[in-house]
Amino acid sequence: MSDQHSHTPDLDETTSVITDAAAVSRENHMLTEGAEPISLWVILGSAIIVLIGGGVLFSGSLFNYNDVVQSGYSRQAPEGDGAGKVVPKPAILAFSKLGEKKSVSCKGCHGNDGGGSGDIPPFVDSEWISGPSLRPAMIILNGCKGPITVAGKEYNGNMPAQGDGLSAQDLAGLLNYLRNNFGHESDTLITIEMAEDALATSKERGGGQVTAAELNEKYNRDLKGEPMDPNTLVDPKTFEPVAAE
């Protein structure tokens, strides 16, 4: 066999084994550079900085309430006397506050100012709100359809029922809120007992939207129940009357 086939191919004339080996060595050094273990002193130093910073933050010296809040501003006091005891409120205020929270979905159509729009009648100056109290309760619980005249103007909208999941307490709050806002001022407090009368009447009716004619013919009366002075102090959570201390 000739020497031509007895040895490996010659390297290219431009190839330098020494140079290429040095290049590989440099590449390996570059890949591992920066991946060396972190010094224990660096870790301890960082931990000390974090501890000092946390001490400054939580000591109040950096974010001191008196330094960052405008003079004369006072934080809203939580409901209670500071010892966990609930402070009684006049019934009309307690119910109206609850009603305002429950009125969010109503305002989505009738507007935040209760002015209505298009075929949606207003809350403002509405005789259906300020009049006999069963009528607005039946509208809330069952919805309303067909022509209805409000404050001298005729509307022909289609309001869906809003009574799903509404408790007697919620309904009482909503009625008191509507009947004491948007240009209304009622001398009568709608109690939970009265709201229960509305729920029972609505259940007996059997469902479906009411019409203006039906409201005037069948439900043109006040809700039944023992009256309560609007200024009676009540527990704002249970709405039960409490004795003044």
CATH architecture of the largest domain: Orthogonal Bundle
User: Can you give the helix content as a percent range?
Assistant: 40-55%
User: What low-confidence regions span 5 or more consecutive residues with pLDDT below 50?
Assistant: none
Cα-atom Rg, whole angstroms?
A: 38 Å
The largest sheet, given as strand count, sense and whether it forms a barrel, is:
2 strands, antiparallel
CATH fold category name of the largest domain: Cytochrome Bc1 Complex, Chain D, domain 2
SS summary, helix count: 10
Shape: elongated
Report, as a whole number of angstroms, the end-to-end distance: 122 Å
Q: What is the CATH domain class of the largest domain? A: Mainly Alpha
Reading side by side through the largest sheet, how are the strands ordered?
1-6
* Total tally of structural domains: 2
Mean pLDDT over the full residue set: 83
Approximately how much beta-strand content do the residues carry?
A: 5-15%
Number of DSSP strands? 6
The assigned structural class equals: mainly alpha
H-E order: HHHEHHHHEEEEHHHE
CATH homologous group name of the largest domain = Cytochrome c-like domain
Give a brief description.
The protein is mainly alpha-helical.
Q: Can you walk me through this structure?
A:
- Strands 1-6 form a two-stranded antiparallel sheet. A two-stranded antiparallel ribbon has the order 2-5.
- It has 245 residues and is mainly alpha-helical.
- 42% of the residues lie in helices and 6% in strands.
- The chain has helices spanning 17-32, 40-59, 65-68, 91-102, 104-110, 127-130, 134-142, 168-178, 192-205, 212-218; strands spanning 89-90, 144-145, 148-150, 153-155, 158-159, 233-234.
- It folds into two domains: 41-68; 89-234, Cytochrome Bc1 Complex, Chain D, domain 2 (Orthogonal Bundle).
- It contains ten helices and six strands, in the order αααβααααββββαααβ.
- A hairpin with a 2-residue loop joins strand 3 and strand 4 (153-155).
- The longest helix has 20 residues, at 40-59.
- Helix 7 (134-142) crosses helix 9 (192-205).
